[in-house]
Write a structure and sequence with these properties.
By secondary structure, this protein is mostly beta strands. The protein has 1 helix and 10 strands.
């Protein structure tokens, strides 16, 4: 049942990933991100490790900070677009947030390293995704 929620989150997750590189991230430029590790969690259960494809997320996605959108393509070829409703830069991190299909998400990207953490919350299920971004 929890996996049924994943399709709803895929577009949101795409948005959540952000940009950074070893030389630093400039939110004025487009970024390319990769989702690498994913976990699906429910109350009272052990979180399940999976792949981005296993939870219907794009492996790679592009963030256009100026347009406040993230673009990706799922393994089946379906293209996704997520809208970034909030963006804040604080203490060397870019924090992005949005709501999609009634589910909230937050992504945090370290500007110096490009490392990314993304969380998606829904009704009694949550997803935690780790990855990395680079400047295009």
């Amino acid at each position: 049942m929890r996996r049924n929620h994943i399709a709803l989150f895929a577009a949101a997750l795409t948005t959540l990933s952000s940009v950074a590189s070893a030389a630093g991230i400039d939110p004025a430029k487009t970024a390319l991100c990769a989702n690498t590790d994913t976990f699906e969690c429910a109350p009272g259960e052990t979180c399940i490790a999976d792949t981005p494809e296993g939870i219907n997320l794009p492996r790679f996605f592009r963030i256009d900070f100026a347009a406040k959108k993230a673009y990706g393509e799922r393994e089946d070829g379906e293209k996704t677009t997520a809208i970034i409703t909030n963006e804040k830069i604080e203490e060397g991190r870019i924090v992005l947030q949005g709501v999609q299909s009634g589910n909230g998400w937050t992504a945090t990207i370290d500007q110096a390293t490009g490392k990314m953490s993304l969380a998606i919350s829904a009704d009694q299920v949550g997803f935690v995704i780790f990855g990395a971004c680079t400047q295009m």
